[in-house]
Specification:
CATH topology of chain B: Arc Repressor Mutant, subunit A
Distance between the termini of chain B: 16 Å
Number of strands of chain B: 3
Order of helices and strands of chain B: HHEHHEEHHHHH
CATH architecture of chain B: Orthogonal Bundle
Bound molecules: adenosine-5'-triphosphate, magnesium ion
CATH superfamily of one domain in chain A: P-loop containing nucleotide triphosphate hydrolases
Oligomer: heterodimer
Radius of gyration of chain A: 18 Å
CATH architecture of one domain in chain A: 3-Layer(aba) Sandwich
CATH superfamily of chain B: Winged helix-like DNA-binding domain superfamily/Winged helix DNA-binding domain
Helix content of chain B: 55-70%
Strand content of chain A: 15-25%
Number of helices of chain A: 8
Structural class of chain B: mainly alpha
Strand content of chain B: under 5%
CATH class of chain B: Mainly Alpha
Structural class of chain A: alpha/beta
Shape of chain B: elongated
Chain lengths: 245, 189
């Protein structure tokens, strides 16, 4: 299945998550300077751009974990910025999953315990949580790794455990910040194939930050963050292609 | 640090010289000789453009209505004529700059020319690099999905193409990151 470049792809529907005029600053640093993004249900969106351009800040703003100067974030039609901190936190627990570059697994817990953690936090009985965690590890090609500690696994294996943990409570949106940043090409590709297969099978929307074009190429489309602003070649491209040559 | 000379050493063939000359004329009316000098300065440090090619190209541009002649000097000889870009010509340059090239090896030469011309014309050089990046990403996505379910041989062939596209993308990103520097050099020197 191929998706075209235009911003219009998937856009017949209503965005699942969108933001308007996002501004975030840290002291005098303006990390985001007025950003609009629409993310559609079920799409895999890559966020690219130079180091320090504001990618992680954008992800944090979308996920509601950073204070906005101005702007609105709308999830599923309702204004997230209007929620109380407790409500936002509940939304994060129930609807969002997170994967980071490294160091996110609890080092003293086995793989299966790490993965079952979100379920236990959500009040699911231990037996069932462990069962579900185990089946997610299987889906990520980690059958037999359940009892290993994070320190006993390779980077790629640990990343898969982290993805399993992020997906185990069926989030609507998975946010991933450089999830393959510490892996070699082949390991990164395998992680991305697994991630996108699972996301598409479950209809999970994915927002993934990456510097690596090959990783981004697994997404349906990409946006570029530069200097606190979002640019997308796609819009200009569809205009340019109207020009006869 | 890059200099235009070094760029030009790496980049000669595969440029669209016609559009490039037209773009140079976009900076203002010029004699044929001055057009050639500008071309050589930005793109021809390794292989200056022959006078014959310059005048043949200008004649073609004139015939196609992309440039016009500005009064004729008393003497004969092509170097006495002054040329000016037309509206149609300007439109053509803009189309050339903002229509992405097909991703393939050796792309940089034409993209480099577009970038320099955009800077000379104070047009959106960053935008055209974005457009090209989009084109490259689309091709990369195509190859990525072609790899699904392909056999190992096909996968390796796709990978070969993908690493070349990735190299282009790195060059595009680096050029975008150095636009300010390049602008200073192109417009200053
Ligand atoms: N907690 C913070 N306190 C102060 N400044 C911050 C903070 N977080 C980010 N910044 C600044 O905001 C800008 C954007 O940072 P951000 O982390 O979003 O960039 P990025 O695009 O994710 O970069 P990278 O690719 O290197 O991860 C940078 O200038 C950074 O220094
Ligand atoms: Mg970051």
């Amino acid at each position: 299945m191929e998706m075209d470049m235009s911003l219009g792809c998937n856009s017949s529907g209503v965005p699942l998550l969108s933001c308007r005029n996002l501004r975030v600053s840290f002291g005098v640093t303006e990390a985001l300077r007025g950003v609009d993004v629409d993310i559609y249900p079920g799409e895999v969106l890559a966020v690219m751009g130079p180091s320090g351009s504001g990618k992680s800040t954008l992800l944090h703003a979308l996920a509601g974990v950073v204070k906005l100067d101005t702007g609105t974030v709308t999830y599923n039609g309702s204004d997230v910025t209007a929620l109380s901190e407790a409500e936002r936190s509940a939304l994060r627990l129930s609807a969002f999953g997170f994967v980071f570059q490294f160091g996110q697994l609890l080092p003293d817990l086995s793989a299966v315990d790490n993965v079952s953690l979100p379920l236990l936090l959500a009040g699911i009985p231990r037996r069932r949580a462990l069962q579900q965690a185990k089946s997610w590890l299987d889906r990520l090609g980690l059958a037999g790794f359940g009892d290993k500690l994070p320190g006993e696994m390779s980077g790629g294996q640990a990343q898969r455990v982290a993805i399993a943990r992020a997906l185990v409570n069926a989030p609507k949106i998975l946010f991933a910040d450089e999830p393959t940043g510490s892996l070699d090409s082949l390991a990164a590709e395998n992680v991305m194939l697994t991630l996108t297969d699972l996301a598409r099978a479950t209809g999970t929307t994915v927002v993934i930050i990456t510097h690596d074009p090959r990783t981004a190429a697994h997404a349906d489309r990409e946006i570029i963050v530069r200097d606190g602003l979002v640019t997308s070649g796609s819009v200009a491209f569809s205009q340019a292609s109207d020009v006869p040559q | 640090m890059y200099t235009l000379r070094v760029y030009a050493l790496c980049i000669v063939a595969f440029m669209d010289n016609t559009q490039t000359l037209l773009g140079i004329l976009g900076t203002g009316p010029s004699y044929g000789y001055d057009v050639k000098r500008s071309y050589d300065r930005y793109f021809g440090s390794k292989k200056p453009m022959a006078f014959g090619q310059v005048y043949a190209t200008l004649a073609r541009l004139l015939r196609d209505g992309l440039i016009a002649m500005l009064g004729e000097e008393t003497g004969s000889g092509p170097d006495r004529k002054r040329y000016e870009i037309t509206e149609v010509g300007r439109k053509r340059v803009s189309e050339w700059m903002f229509t992405p090239d097909v991703p393939e090896a050796q792309l940089q030469s034409n993209l480099f020319a577009k970038t320099v011309i955009a800077l000379l014309l104070e047009d959106d050089a960053e935008g055209l690099l974005d457009i090209q990046r989009g084109e490259h990403m689309a091709r990369l996505r195509e190859l990525t999905s072609a790899k699904r379910g392909a056999n190992v041989m096909e996968v390796l062939m796709c990978d070969h193409a993908m690493f070349h596209i990735e190299a282009d993308l790195r060059w595009i990103d680096l050029t975008a990151a150095r636009l300010t520097e390049l602008r200073a050099q192109v417009t200053g020197a």
